[in-house]
Amino acid sequence: MANRNLKQVRIERTFTPKSGADMVSPPQQQMMTPGKGMKRSLEVSEGDPSLMPPKMEEREEERGVTIDIKSFLKPGEKSYTQRCRLFVGNLPTDITENEFKKLFDKYGEPSEVFINRDRGFGFIRLESRTLAEIAKAELDGMVMKSRPLRIRFATHGAALTVKNLSHVISNELLEEAFSMFGPVERAVVIVDDRGRATGKGFVEFAAKPPARKALERCSDGAFLLTT
Asked: Domain spanning 159-220: which superfamily?
């Protein structure tokens, strides 16, 4: 059911392998008619990457954890991404913004707080994915004013799924290729249990406009990744 509204786009990729060991240099993106070389047709669609998620981080199961915020900021980790955004359902209709924020006080300062009192739900964005995982584990099911809270990770609204990737494409190459459309929060080539590429991946943009731009450009012509 979740795939019903996905918008499919076909893009062409040209890759000319070098002799000897495959050496991959940073890709160059072009909008042009495919030329000589090996052609690989990629399928890019707009949708929730949770339909084909990578292995999730080990979740924190214990409650009552004392949290040192700084210890969860990994070197080079991007903060306040959409992967750190939580959906909070079954909220009391009379909850205030201060009460909502107080629920998440121990998990650091949020960058986004939204409440829909009429429908009893809200969103909050924390600094890191790890903090969001812990908050979800601790607060999901907690009773607030006789109502058990329902906490889930929010659907990523600026993600593209990519299929038929070459086995030589890495996370870094995939991110660099799509960065021409705007800031990319994360790009992942999905692998199997043995670490072998499955030919699928996804790209998560920081906002919807770059994601829409990528779809539009790929719809207008071929999107080539060349080495």
From this structure: RRM (RNA recognition motif) domain (3.30.70.330)
What's the CA gap between 36 and 34, in Å, rounded?
7
Q: Enter the pTM of the model.
A: 0.57
CA-based nearest residue to 90, from 56, 117, 109: 117
Beta strands in the chain (DSSP E): 7-15, 28-31, 38-46, 85-89, 112-116, 121-125, 143-144, 147-148, 150-153, 159-163, 184-191, 197-205, 223-226
* CB-based contact 207:183 (threshold 8 Å): yes
pLDDT tens digits, residue range 13-27? Answer: 444 444 444 444 444
> What strand order describes the sheet that includes 159-163?
7-15, 38-46, 159-163, 197-205, 184-191
User: What confidence tier does 5 reach under pLDDT thresholds 50, 70, 90?
Assistant: very low
Do domains 77-153 and 159-220 share one topology? The answer is yes
pLDDT, mean over the chain: 76
Structural domain boundaries of the chain?
77-153, 159-220
Q: What is the CATH number of domain 77-153?
A: 3.30.70.330
What would the 3-class secondary structure string for 126-179 be? CCCHHHHHHHHHHHCCCEECCEECEEEECCCCCEEEEECCCCCCCHHHHHHHHH
Tell me the per-residue pLDDT of 140-199, one tens digit each, with 9 for 90 and over: 999 999 999 999 999 888 998 888 888 888 999 999 999 999 999 989 999 999 889 998
Round to whole Å and give the CA distance between 48 and 195: 23
